[in-house]
């Protein structure tokens, strides 16, 4: 099933006021089931706005958003996606383990079931020993890993991630990128991933969607076809070719690649 359909969506903040801003204009985006799509573009081009529209945290001014075949509000109520945003958004009064358990609680999992699953997810992000800590006792990067574990815990059909790895050191970042791809491949999860990093976008994505600012629009979409997503891929000419294509699109130079569109 198609994971996300954004149909002619325009978002105007503070409409009719002096500080009115058109964050997105006539945006069209379709994400297929199991597809990994990155959004990349300059600061303020509307990446977070687009993700928040898909998550039904805000509503479009015009146009429609469909998630898993339903309107975005219904998909939110049905918990059809997991979200991990820039700010970790953890509950300070809950331990790390109980933060990760939260979406499982909301789904009515048994106590033992959710504990086992939460522990598994914490091990995955390398925080098994910190299960009993509180968020304030962790670094920013560690808090972000907890948020990622929480988003993945329910194995949602769709993941919405807004610069989730931004605060992490390069080694952790690369490890989590690989883990994320492994999880998505295993579970058939679709992902919409916001990033500032061209190399991260290319490494992770089936398609890199390039946006421009004022008003935010999609200016290009580049299909990324790499034989594998491993350390060798990160050093391949093919990979660097895609990085160059995305960089050129970001600069407003149309890409020369035959597979860019
Ligand atoms: N709640 C809001 N109220 C008013 N303006 C907003 C709001 N959220 C975002 N904007 C504006 O919309 C534009 C796009 O913002 P955003 O989606 O956060 O960009 P990005 O994530 O690409 O950096 C910016 O000009 C920003 O100032
Ligand atoms: Mg943003």
From TrEMBL:
InterPro entries named among the record's database cross-references: AAA+_ATPase, ABC_transporter-like_ATP-bd, ABC_transporter-like_CS, ABC_transporter_ATP-bind, P-loop_NTPase
Question: Which molecular function GO terms apply here?
Answer: ATP binding; ATP hydrolysis activity
The chain positions of domain ABC transporter read 4-238
> Which Pfam family is an annotated match for this chain, by its short name?
ABC_tran
Signal peptide limits: none
Q: Which UniProt keywords apply?
A: ATP-binding, Lipoprotein, Nucleotide-binding, Transport
Domain of life (superkingdom) = Bacteria
For this protein, the record's PANTHER family field holds: ABC TRANSPORTER ATP-BINDING PROTEIN, TAURINE IMPORT ATP-BINDING PROTEIN-RELATED
Task: Please give the name of this protein.
Answer: Sulfonate ABC transporter ATP-binding lipoprotein
Source organism = Paractinoplanes rishiriensis
């Amino acid at each position: 099933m198609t994971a996300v359909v954004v149909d002619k969506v325009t978002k105007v903040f503070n409409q009719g006021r002096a500080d009115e801003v058109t964050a997105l204009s006539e945006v069209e985006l379709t994400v297929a089931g199991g597809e990994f799509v990155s959004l990349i573009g300059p600061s303020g081009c509307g990446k977070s706005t687009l993700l928040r529209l898909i998550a039904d945290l805000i509503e479009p001014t015009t146009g429609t958003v469909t998630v898993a075949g339903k309107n975005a509000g219904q998909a939110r109520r049905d918990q059809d996606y997991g979200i991990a945003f820039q700010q970790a958004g953890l509950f300070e009064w809950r331990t790390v383990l109980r933060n990760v358990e939260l979406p499982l609680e909301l789904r009515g999992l048994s106590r033992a079931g959710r504990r086992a699953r939460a522990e598994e997810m914490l091990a995955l992000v390398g925080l098994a020993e910190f299960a009993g800590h509180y968020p304030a006792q962790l670094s920013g990067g560690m808090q972000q890993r907890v948020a990622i574990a929480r988003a993945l815990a329910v194995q949602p059909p769709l993941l919405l991630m807004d610069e989730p790895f931004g605060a992490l050191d390069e080694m952790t970042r690369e490890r989590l990128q690989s883990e994320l791809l492994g999880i998505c491949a295993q579970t058939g999860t679709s992902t919409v991933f916001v990033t500032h990093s061209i190399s991260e976008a290319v490494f992770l994505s089936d398609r890199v969607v390039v946006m421009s600012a004022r008003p935010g629009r999609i200016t290009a979409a580049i299909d990324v076809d790499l034989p594998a997503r491993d350390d060798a891929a990160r050093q391949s000419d093919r990979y660097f070719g895609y990085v160059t294509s995305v960089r050129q699109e970001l600069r407003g130079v149309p890409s020369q690649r035959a597979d860019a569109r």
